[in-house]
Amino acid sequence: MEPGVFRSDFLDASSLSTAAQRIGAYEGTPAHATLEWSDTANHTQLGDPVKGAALIYEVTGGDKLPGHLALGRDAIERQLVKIGSIQDDLAAWRDRSAATACDDAA
Question: CA–CA separation, 86 vs 2, rounded Å?
Fold first, then answer.
């Protein structure tokens, strides 16, 4: 299961502990941006936890479990970006990578 962000108390002080002071040197970094996002995103997340739980229940009751289960539009988008990045890397290095096989390998 690879969930996106779900509307829950996960970003509340009851669940998420952050430092009282932020280090100025991290200003403008992704880590700092994530902290700023968490300050404003609480209870506005895209995912509905009841719908997410229903899908998990449905999937786990099936005959075959998926290797990856994206939960939410944001999770799907992140996975598509990752898949594209992997495809680009494979295409760029495919021949050189395949050439690393032993000479007697089929």
Answer: 18
Residue 70 belongs to what H/E stretch?
Answer: strand 70-71
Please answer whether residues 26 and 32 qualify as being in contact, where contact means their C-beta atoms are separated by less than 8 angstroms.
Answer: yes
Q: Is 3 helix (H, G, I), strand (E, B) or coil?
A: strand
Check: CB of residue 51 under 8 Å from CB of residue 4.
Answer: no
Whether the predicted model's global pTM rises above the 0.85 cut: no
| Pair of tokens at residue 91 | 């295409």
Ranges under pLDDT 50 in the chain: none
The 10s digit of each residue's pLDDT in 38-54 is: 778 888 888 999 999 99
